[in-house]
Fold:
Amino acid sequence: MTAGEALAAFRAAAADPGAVAAQVRGERRVVWMLGSDLPYELVEAFGQHPVRLVPDRRIDTQAIDALVNAETMGVRGRALLAAIVALPREDALLISHADSEQPQIFATLRELARTGAIAKPDVHFLDLLTIDRPATRTYNRARIEQAAAWLGGAADWTGAFEAGNRRRALLRDVLGLRAEGRLSGTDAHAILAGAAVLPSPECCAALEAIRDLPRREGRRFLLSGSDIEDIAVVEAIEAAGLLILGENHGWGELRARRDLHAAGDPINALAATTLAPRSGPFSNAARRAGSLAVRAEALDVEGVLHLRIANDDSAPWEVAALREALGDRPLFLAEDPITPERIAAALAGETPAHEAPFEAPQRGTPRPARSRKSLDAIARFGAYQREWFATVRAQAANCEPFAAVNANAPQEILRALGVPFVVNQWWASIVAAKQQSARYAALLRAHDLPGDVEAYSAQGIAALFEEDAERAPWGGLPRPDLLGAVLITDATARIFEAWAERSGALLQSYERSIESRWDIPIDWWDGLADGWDDLIEPERLDLFEAGLREAIGQIEALTGRTLDPARLEHIMDLVNAQQRHYRATRDLVARTVPAPVSVVDTMPATMVPQWHRGTEWARDAAQAFHDEVAARAAAGEAACPNERIRLMFVGRGLWSDMGFYQRWEESHGAVFVCSMYLSLAADGYIREHHGGNLVRALAARFVTMGDELRMPSWAGAWHVKEARLHQCDGAVALSDADPLVIRALREAGIAVLELGMDNYVRDEAAEADLDARVVAFLEGPAGEASRKRLDD
Structure:
């Protein structure tokens, strides 16, 4: 075989992996691999053939587009779903947790199969996590063992590991030619892609044939940013005159660097392959940038090209770390679509859209941002919140440890250890309510951080850069000493890493594990509060419990305090009591027609005490909230006396424009009676412990947080249940609503209006026809459903 023939073989395999799979299929089972972090040796050890699965531009996604919401399942996700549905029935599919979209793909397949929309595929989810700690190693080992049981048969670990190490050694030799300028980046990516498709003997024979290539000319560059799953991307870059010598993404040369050894425990070796990753959204941005800077120095490249492909939310958050690591070496930014012309523009210094200066949107017709509140409790809660925050600011100013945590982080341990804290999303709602989001986006931009990528979660770090004390919402957010977050999105790790680095705070990151079973109970709300130990996978509980115990030790070391179990038990009991009040309030609002209050009342009345859960004040505030709603219902008072249409709101709250929810009450009698805030408080937070393992019960609260709202099977059935419970005639959804939630509502006969807008960084141009669309919905599907309900 000549070098040219070998390159042709790799290009053919990369372009048409299905043809390779067809040749192998008669001899062994084909297992399609979705995720650059999957260890191929796991499949090869069982005598089965792994084949890389990436989006294919040639596959028509029209059928999938009809099943999922294009606003929330991106182009890549829909292309992958279409490719999966088109796989031969005899093939299998292994999906990893390489990013936050792939768990959604697995859960979407599960829900589509459960509802009969697609045939059940032979699929397994391998939830390998990344934080290098003993609990993660134990968790990964359990998941590897489950995947091995799914693959079935006896494993030849030694043979598989030796074959994999030989393949990687040959890849390193070939990629060394690229570093010398003798192999184009396009050919290198074709080789890497083909090596993830071809059987190992054929792959190694082709790699051995690639030798003695002539030197090539071009501007010497490295690539960073998003994973490149399409060789045409590199081809377009090199067509602009660049010569790509290396990259640090998941499908690149990093795959050739880590050998496996079967001399010890092969399961442990496989379980460690994703720990401390050097690529992907869960890698450390600073370490990744530092490694690339060393490579750039060694190869003496002209610059680094950073790519953002397919709306990757992680990539923009690593730009600042890259600039710092590269020093004087130029960094250029490019985003989809990648064409030679756009690369030339990037090299000329043209700013891509996600790096453009952020300007406040201009409103055409002014709209009231304030809403009418009917509950006296809301004013009392607001006054308490201001007094509390002033106290927190004073404590921080007095050098007491202060924490900022995401809403899905376990705040109860901070309360038990006496550490004052602020919830990041509450702060974001204050920034939005004070109409400061555009200014905060500009502050992020000024410090080389994106202002419009997961903006709702970035307002805490933006507060670090606040210099205008008079405009700072509520006096400004103190600089944190401790940060906490569950790694639930691709941007979360990057946001909190940047926040910790720039504030000097201790960062506590919790792994987000994934429900990996195919058959799960969808009516979880009936058993999760008291039967959580049976409903939740023990592996997930073990992992989060271990993370909590590690975090407790770190906070004890930071504060010099010791956790009092009796104090934690008291806090857990207070939280459960508070949520039971919410459940009673939810049920009251749901059954009362006309509704005594709307979401304009229930959202703040729920969330303000929720930020203080675990305190006597919060428990009593939740009871006062219930009692006032009950009094209104008993007196026949209504949020909208002429109520005709009852609506659910799906997605995060429009905190910067709460008046939106009341805009159609007078004209159409349309009342928003249901949102995720009160409903999730009622069904998602209660965890009875019965005097047992308090830390494990607390872990049970947070393991599933987020699943209830956005994970298919979990979220769809629950939203349908809530819509029916509240007697809703329709639902209005933001762009962050899960596609399967919207589909489940529609299949249940509940009309849905998709607004196609974010709750935070609002595109006013896209809202120009908002009123007309809402009116058409109210006078059309929602109105028709209302008339039928009232007639019945």
In short: Residues 556 and 562 are 6 Å apart (CA to CA). Residues 565-591 form the longest helix (27 residues).
